[in-house]
Amino acid sequence: MWFNQKKSTEQDNPQALLDELVSNGIELTIDELIRYQTKSSLINLAASKSSHGKMSGNYLARSKGRGMEFDEVRHYQNGDDIRAIDWRVTARTGKTHTKLFREEVERPVLIATDLSTSMLFGSRLLFKSVQAAHVAALVAWHAKSRGDRIGGVVFNQQSHTELKPRSRQQGVLHYLHALVKSHADSIQIASENEDRERTKLAFEQNCARLRQLAKPGSLVYLITDAFSLSDEAVRHLANISRHCELVVCLISDPLEQQLPDSAQKISVAITSGDNDERQQFILGDKALAEKYHQQAMSLNDSIEQQLTKAGARLLHFCASEALETQLHRGVASWIR
């Protein structure tokens, strides 16, 4: 489900909610991203697949060996380390047993945030780009609380900032400041005529950069509306998922999925973030509304199929509700 069709109580007083979020919904500030430091316990980034890394750190690999975390006891086999013999079990059973451990490995967290022109759109509360930055901030603060190093890529169709993983609060703040700067740049260039092929190429190139940054065992987040997804980008993402855990957070807006209800036919013009051309729609035309919705669902299905085939785990977020509200309602594999 790409958005919640039920009317949210947040819509009754959107300005009060924006004040709580320290946001105007359009521009991005460092204060609204720092706010998520106190919200990091809302999610859990525990690894859901085997770690492939060889570095020492905070996560348990499924490979057995000497390490910090006890795993199990089994019969001694030739070649086992005699220092790991469990003498109590050996004495009790009369047969030699050895202890096995899970090796702890480090897992850098890489976040790629798409702030391209199509993300500069929002019909109710926040621009998709602002919600994407909120998701990125929450992931970064939670990763920091677990002792992970944080890095990644922040990009739009014209520029990118590549950040190698850093530890502690320095890594988080470095990433958050990159979000704020890139978002301001995106707004500044939004009035320029967009070359869709150039935007697709930029998306592919940044997926390739993410692929180069993602060392085996990393946890990789891509936060985007996936409007610029291409076969080449999917190829890069599939390569990442072979060696890392890949999570794609898809950001949507209700107006992209379904036209508003209207008791009478009303002609409205809508300008989307990825196109300066104003599109005319007739509200109250049930046939048109159904066609619009079906086209949106078809696009959604295509995007989901490509990303799932690439080995990504998908999470959906809507720009019309506060991130906390959506998390409290339940986002698969993120709720504690």
In short:
This protein has 336 residues and is α/β, with parallel strands linked by helices.
Molecular structure report:
By secondary structure, the protein is α/β, with parallel strands linked by helices. The chain has two domains: 10-52 and 106-329, 3-Layer(aba) Sandwich (Rossmann fold); 59-105, no CATH class. The chain contains ten helices and eleven strands. The chain has helices spanning 14-20, 30-34, 87-93, 128-145, 168-189, 196-213, 231-243, 254-257, 286-309, 323-329, and strands at residues 59-65, 69-75, 97-105, 109-114, 150-155, 160-166, 219-224, 245-252, 266-271, 278-283, 313-318. The strands form three sheets. Strands 6-5-4-7-8-11 form a six-stranded mixed sheet, sandwiched between helices. A three-stranded antiparallel sheet has the order 1-3-2. Strand 5 and strand 6 form a beta hairpin. Helix 6 (196-213) packs parallel to helix 7. It is elongated, with a radius of gyration of 23 Å. The two termini are 21 Å apart. Mean pLDDT is 86; it is low at 1-7 and 50-67.
Catalogue the unreliable spans. 1-7, 50-67
Compute the number of strand runs: 11
Q: What is the overall shape?
A: elongated
Q: How helix-rich are the residues, as a percent range?
A: 25-40%
The CATH topology label of the largest domain is Rossmann fold
User: Biggest sheet, strands in spatial order?
Assistant: 6-5-4-7-8-11
Main beta sheet strand tally, sense and closure: 6 strands, mixed
Radius of gyration: 23 Å
Portion in beta strands: 15-25%
CATH superfamily of the largest domain: von Willebrand factor, type A domain
Instruction: Give the structural class.
Output: alpha/beta
Q: Helix count, per DSSP?
A: 10
The arrangement of helices and strands along the chain is HHEEHEEHEEHHEHEHEEHEH
InterPro entries: DUF58, vWFA_dom_sf
Pfam family, one: DUF58
Protein name: DUF58 domain-containing protein
Domain DUF58: 72-296
